[in-house]
Structures are given as structure tokens and as C-alpha cells.
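User: Can you predict the 3D structure for this chain?
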Amino acid sequence: MANKKAVIVGALGVIGRNLLLWLERNTDWQLVGLARRAPDFATRARFVSVDLLDRADAEAKLAELEDVTHVFYAAFQPAPTWAGHDAPNLALLRNSVEPIAATSEVLEHVHLVEGTKIYGSHLGPFKTPAKESDPPHMLPNFYHTQETWLRRFRQGRPWSFSALRPQTVCGFSVGSPMNLAVGLAVYAAISKELGLPLRYPGTEKAFRSLYQVTDSELLAACMHWCATSPAARDEVFNITNTDYFRWENLWPRFARCFEMEPGGVQTIRLAEFMADKGPLWAEMQKKYDLVPIPYEQLVSWPFVDYCLTRDYDVMTDTIKIRKAGFHLCEDSEEMFARLFAEFRRMRVIP
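Assistant: Here is the predicted structure, written as C-alpha cells:
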């Protein structure tokens, strides 16, 4: 396996970072990370600073990657409107895959990370559990646009592709816009510092609706499996921890993790109520000797609001990937407890 060389596009996000660390521990592949900034953690991977929205910069920086065997695409460009996501996110994918495919004669596989928003999970109640054969919601949807382009570009070429559709990936990263576990941990730590019980800041209906998440390490293992298993060749799969839960049942466990009293539901917009907590967090970092990560790079409060206010079941079917041969799973309650303990060991939270 030493002759494998992987390029991870978006290597510092919650998906890319944890995939990189997983591959470092579990393979002897050569690793290249693509990102605009340098890594904030120790890694043996080579990092290439590149602006993938600039085609000329992408071609110049990626021209030297002649022996890449695998591309893992986990980048994301936010936009103010849903339709506005389409063009920049397609450009990111094209500007990373096309130059590498043109340069490397040994390319074997391109893996694309999508999400359950392709089913309309962000728009309101949708068919659950969602299956890979379900149609997308009314377009545009940048996941659909990316997958359609990749399928067409792959035609007539010797390499294969795969795509995964995880639901709410949980792990650690800095500066990632979609990181629920860190958001919950920081919210709990600040609530505790203020002498408050751990109240659920979402809505009453969301508190009692079914939800799913995906552990970043499980996702990394699944991405590796997709990139190397013949059963995943040119296939698309849903992936989650495989279990379902209701926040109302996890909340008391979360409170115990932080040695707090569980509170009830008190609906607030965290994007508004946490906006002034930067100075308090800076004081807590000094008080508890935490890693001095800037508050604004730690959590995207609008994303946490989004996750905790969906007043309907969020469920996807993972039978297809299990039948194909990937059988790893995770207990979501145990995952959150493990991640909170890990964040504490990392000195991210008290």
C-alpha cells in the first residue's frame, strides 16, 4: 500500500482534518493536504496552499502532483443564499479534480463528500428514512450539481468515483463552519461558567424529534473503504452512526459530562446570544489554561442553531452501504461523551 498517494481537498475542515489523521494512523500512504492556510496540528502530510476558486492558481499548484492515486474531496464554500452555493462549490471541485486528473496517470479513485441536504433535509419535513434512490429536492442543489458533473467527467476515464452522504459530522476542527460537537461543548462550558443549568437552546419539537449524526472517525474509515473497495466503485451511499436518537434523551447525559444540572427547553438564537461571549471565552482560556483558539474560529453558532431547531425527523437509510460490505457503526451517545472528553484533553474546553 506504500505506493498510494492521497490528496485531501479541504484538509483542515472537520471532515478533511479527521480523514487526514485517520489515514496517518491506519495507512502508510503518502498524504497531501490542500488548504488556504497552514495546518494547526502536527502531521506528516505535505500541505499545499492553494486558492481553488482561482483556476490559474489551482493549475499551477497542482501541476506537480503527478503520482496521485486517490483524491478525497471534502471542501465547502458557504454562500449567502442556497442557490448561490452552486457555482463556487462546483468550481472548487472542478479546479481540484481536473488538474490532478490531467497530471496524474496513476489516478485510481475520486471520492466526493455530499450530505443529506440533497434530500431537502434543510427545507423542512422530508421522506424518511431517505434512501440513495430518492430524487433530490427542487434544484439547484450543489451536491447534485457536483455529483452530476463528476459522473460525466469520469466517463471514459480509467479511474472510478464514489460519494458519501453523511448527516451532521461530529469531530474537531478549527475554523470549520459545520461542527456541532464543538459548538455543544463550548455552549455547555459557557453555561456552566455563568452558573446556568444546561438548557436546550433549540425548539420543543426539535428536542423530541429523531435525529442522526456521523462520527468523523467512522466517516474517515468509510471514505477509505469507498476509495479501495470494488463494491463502492461508482456508487453513492448514505452514512451515519446508524442509530437514531432524540435530544431529550441525550441531554441529561450531556449535563453529566459537564457536571451540570440538565435544564429544560429554552429556545434562543445562539447566533445572537453567543455573539457577545468572546471576551468571556478569552477569560476562560486564561483561567483554565486552554489552547488560545480565537472564539470566532471555534464555533459557527448559526450552524448549531440550524441543527437544534429542526422540528421534524432527520433520518437516512444506511442499508445500501451495509449490504455493500461496510459494517462499522457507532453509538451516538457514547460518541458525544468521547468527543467531549477528547476536547477536554486537548484543552479546547475546561
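Residues 177-212+244-314+331-345 form one domain. The chain has a mean pLDDT of 96.
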